[in-house]
Design a protein that fits this description.
The complex is a heterodimer of chains A (about 375) and B (about 100). Chain A has 3 domains: about 120 residues, Rossmann fold; about 150 residues, Rossmann fold (3-Layer(aba) Sandwich); about 55 residues, no CATH class. Chain A has 15 helices and 13 strands. In chain A, helix 1 packs parallel to helix 11, helix 2 runs parallel beside helix 15 and helix 7 packs across helix 12. The longest helix of chain A has 22 residues. Chain B is globular and about 40 Å long. Classes of the chains: A alpha/beta (about 375), B alpha+beta (about 100). The complex binds iron/sulfur cluster.
Chain lengths: ~375, ~100
């Protein structure tokens, strides 16, 4: 509770927290999934659990792009970059994600040409600057990021840049939510919907969750108050026995999404028949690939890739944590072999990964308390 | 990855309608406006930027709020590093990320 004073409008936070307690039926146990990794990070960072009654359990969803990407795809991308002509480019988040033979950064240490870019547009620029090399962009992300990759590809085609390609690992959020709702060991009462994905896709694509599955969903911002208000929204619905899609993040998310972004995606990408997700397995129509008309810029078509399925290291329980079956600290490797400094699983790498979030805020906090009390 | 960084449009180019110079707490970089082509921002407008592309127009108040959210999340530094890296500037040192 000590964090409350540091928040903006602490009285509103306290009031909202009280409202949540009023709405939650003490005889019920609520399981609310925050789909987006950004929310997971915020929930741990702000210690929001302390503001909720114990019968509200927050389940961390699949919305962390590096976390859900199976290791075989990283191996495939790195295999392409074994070719000395190729410059491997990716966002910083990708650089420490372990492949079978190490992360992109470790490959760089062994001599591979691996470079961070902060925008796919910069990977294209790098290709223009290096006409005698081939620049491959390792693309990851949900619908927040996919439109930027799409526009970059549109520009590459328009400008006739032929020494550039995309290794596409973009995934889509709706099929993942469907897979979670379909899985028999998963009981979810309501969802906190992703903020920035929804600026692109809008709120309509969630409507089936309310209509067919009878679950409330509130698209939420990232401030403590946003998340608490979203919890109030879904609890009110649950109390009234309703299921609707609500938009708590109206200041940024238009109900209809961003049409220009959706157009760019539709022009460049098509759905893959299926794609493997860590923890969730193969999900049909859950990922994007380049259309035939962009074959020339498709790294998967231009280069041989091993395409081998690789299982995670045996003791790593990333899949179970991703599914919400285990909490991060219940993984055998958590905090000993696997830490943000030495990640074994992808969930420990990105700040959106639940293991990293749990480690950075919950674990360090507990470790500090234990060391203080044992030292006293 | 999910970072959305608020910035103000300070320069537009009549011959390049897809490009704007934006200012994020004093750092100025070019970003792509392609995702806002249905509703292009004007000079002085505020936008949310994600991986080098402006993805939505927001109010000035929301921009200030978003910057504060990034700070509160401990992501402000990463956001500034991202902005500074646009245009391949300061990208030679991946270890620093
Ligand atoms: S602690 Fe490490 S190995 Fe275990 S689930 Fe988390 S990321 Fe995976």
């Amino acid at each position: 509770m000590k964090f409350v004073d540091e928040f903006r409008e602490p009285e509103v936070i306290t009031r909202t927290s009280a409202e949540i307690r009023r709405l939650a039926d003490p005889s019920r146990h609520y399981r609310i999934m925050e789909v987006c990794g950004g929310h997971t990070h915020a929930i741990y960072r702000f210690g929001l659990k302390d503001l909720l009654p114990s019968n509200i359990e927050l389940i961390h969803g699949p919305g962390c792009p590096v976390c859900v990407l199976p290791m075989g795809r990283i191996d495939d991308g790195l295999a392409i970059a074994q070719n000395p002509e190729v410059i491997f480019t990716a966002f910083g988040d990708m650089m420490r994600v372990p492949g079978t033979l190490g992360s992109p950064l470790e490959h760089k240490a062994r001599g591979m040409d691996v470079r961070i870019v902060y925008s796919p547009a910069d990977a294209l620029k790098l290709a223009e600057k290096n006409p005698d090399r081939h620049v491959m962009f390792f693309a990851i992300g949900f619908e927040t990021t996919a439109p930027s990759t799409a526009l970059t590809l549109l520009r590459a085609k328009a400008q006739g840049v032929h020494n550039f390609s995309v290794f596409c690992n973009h995934v889509t959020i709706i099929p993942a939510i469907r897979a979670i709702l379909d899985s028999p060991d998963m009981r979810i009462d309501a969802f906190i919907g992703p903020g920035h994905v929804s600026t692109v896709i809008g709120c309509r694509p969630y409507e089936w969750i309310a209509k067919n599955e009878n679950k409330p969903l509130a698209v939420s911002g990232f401030e403590p108050l946003d998340i608490l208000q979203s919890i109030v929204m879904v609890l009110r619905q649950l109390k009234a026995d309703e299921a609707r899609i609500e938009n708590q993040y109206k200041r940024v998310v238009p109900w209809e999404g961003n049409r220009a972004a959706l157009r760019a995606m539709a022009e460049v990408f098509e759905l893959r028949p299926y794609f493997e997700w860590r923890g969730l397995g193969f999900i049909s129509q859950s990922a994007l690939r380049l259309r035939e008309s962009y074959a020339e810029w498709d790294a998967e078509r231009r280069f041989e890739i091993p395409g081998v399925r690789v299982t995670d290291p045996k003791a790593a329980q990333c899949g179970e944590v991703l599914k919400g079956v285990l909490k991060p600290h219940q993984c055998k490797l958590f905090g000993n072999e696997c830490t943000p400094e030495h990640p074994i699983g992808a969930l420990m790498v990105s700040s959106e990964g639940s293991c990293a979030a749990y480690f950075n805020y919950e674990h360090r906090k507990t470790a500090m308390v234990t060391s203080i009390s044992s030292g006293a | 990855m999910c970072l959305a960084i608020p910035g103000q449009v300070i320069e537009l180019f009549p011959d390049q309608p897809n490009i704007a110079v934006i200012d994020v707490v004093g750092v100025r970089r070019k970003v792509d406006l392609g995702l806002l082509q249905d509703n292009l921002p004007l000079k002085g407008d505020w936008v949310l930027i994600h991986v080098g592309f402006a993805m939505s127009k927001i109010s000035e108040q929301d921009a200030l709020d978003q910057m504060r959210t990034l700070r509160a999340l401990g992501e402000a530094e990463a956001a500034m590093q991202e902005i500074q890296g646009y245009g391949l500037e300061n990208t030679e040192n991946p270890e620093a990320s």
